[in-house]
Amino acid sequence: MGEERQRLLQRVIDELDRNGIRDRSLRELAAALGTSHRMLIHHFGSRDGLLVAVVDAVERGERERSVQPSGKLPDDFAEAFRAQWRHFSRSEFAGRERLFFECYARGLTGEEPFARMHPSSVTDWVASNSAPLPAA
Question: What is the biggest distance separating any 2 CA atoms in the chain, rounded to whole angstroms?
Answer without folding.
Answer: 49
